[in-house]
Amino acid sequence: MSEANHSTELAPGALTDVPGLEVGHATNLITWTGCTVVLAREGAIAGGVVRGLAPGTRETDLLRPATLVEKAHGILLTGGSAFGLAAADGVMRYLEEHGIGYDAGGVRVPIVPGAVLFDLGIGDSAVRPDATMGYAACQAANSKDQSQGNVGAGTGATVGKILGMGRAMKGGLGTASVRAGRLVVGALIAVNAFGDVVDPETGVIIAGARKAIGRGFADTRQAMRGMLIRNVLAHTNTVIGVVATNARLNVAQANEVAAAAHDGLARAVRPSHTLFDGDTLFALAGDELEAHQTLVMDMAAEAVALAIVNGVRAARAAGGLPAAGDLSA
User: Fold this and answer.
1) How many domains in the chain?
2) Is the pLDDT assigned to residue 102 strictly greater than 80?
3) In the chain, N or C: fewer CB atoms in 10 Å?
4) In a domain, 3, yes or no
5) Residues 171, 310: contact at Cβ < 8 Å?
6) Domain for residue 42, yes or no?
7) Helices marked H in the chain — which ranges?
């Protein structure tokens, strides 16, 4: 299967290395779907950038600069395609019950942007994340979580689908963080890409479309050049996630960090940001220290690339699809 020997060691760190954040998951390993929440109980400056052309999102307009509300209290990453956005109702209910949200005069309204990925092709398409699952993910949230692989929003994730699901591989949820002194930038990414996942250091494919005949990878970029791309798998892919930092940023800067984080996506997924993907990344900023925005942007791209690779290396075979983590080096 492998084009070359590659390490299965995971990059260190997690999104929860950023102070003030909690991560929780709800996972259904029978129907192969789930959701993940990132909670910022005190609120965090938020931004978000959609680069894929087939997105499924919630509350992204309020993340633009110059909008009234600047902070988010939670981010939802979920399977279930557009149906999965129902899980946000459970996140909203949990946060409201805990008195968390934007003070709208007598009532607190939790701000919970979210994004979906399509996992209806691997398990039971009639079962999707709902409000109960979103609430359960919040109940499980904690500041130490480092779960990866077939968990939460990555439960039914797959990658490399140009030759159909029968030649695809298992994707997953990955997390990582990078540091520069006291500055920390973390990422949490659900990897469900149309393209292949590569090791950014070597360019070697580690998970993706498998050859129709024989062993090895088809290389999605090369396959596109030699075949008619069909729309049969349109809207069935996406990479969604969150980057966060303890650096002090405003909304405009948080949006620039989210945009730079997509550079990391492009380093680890090829091709990325396609017509068939809904690639969406959110950014959260704390208030712990001052840091140059350029440094934060560069670290965000690195953290995202590491988290994507972690996500497929931590995944395990499911739904008849092999996973990079199960392959011998």
Assistant:
1) 1
2) yes
3) C
4) no
5) no
6) yes
7) 87-97, 131-140, 220-225, 251-268, 293-314
Instruction: Tell me how far apart the alpha carbons of residues 56 and 278 are, in angstroms, rounded to a whole number.
Output: 7
In-domain check, residue 147 = yes
* Residues comprising the chain, all counted: 329
| Residue 306's CATH number | 3.60.70.12
pLDDT surpassing 60 at residue 233:
no
- Which residue has 């298992």 as its token pair? 170
> pLDDT at residue 307 above 60?
yes
Tell me, yes or no, whether 45 lies in a domain.
Answer: yes
Residues 31-44 pLDDT 10s: 999 999 999 999 99
- Cα–Cα distance for residue pair 122/176, rounded to 1 Å: 26
Give me the amino acid identity at 129.
P
Q: What are the C-alpha distances in Å from 189 to residues 89, 108, 164, 218?
A: 22, 29, 23, 24
**How far apart, in whole angstroms, are the C-alpha atoms of residue 96 and residue 177?**
30
> Higher-confidence residue: 62 or 91?
91
> Running DSSP on this structure, what letter comes out for residue 228?
P
Count of other CB atoms within 10 angstroms of residue 109: 15
pTM (2 d.p.): 0.94
CA angle 185, 152, 198 (to 5 degrees): 60
Q: Is the pLDDT of residue 169 over 60?
A: yes
Which run of H or of E encompasses 102?
strand 102-103
- Token pair belonging to 321: 């699809």
Reading phi first (left if > 0) and then psi (alpha if -120 to 50, else beta), residue 319 is in: left
Q: What is the DSSP letter of 155?
A: T
Rg (CA), the chain: 18
Domain containing residue 45: 15-323
Res 235: pLDDT: 55
76 pairs with which residues across the strands? 37, 114
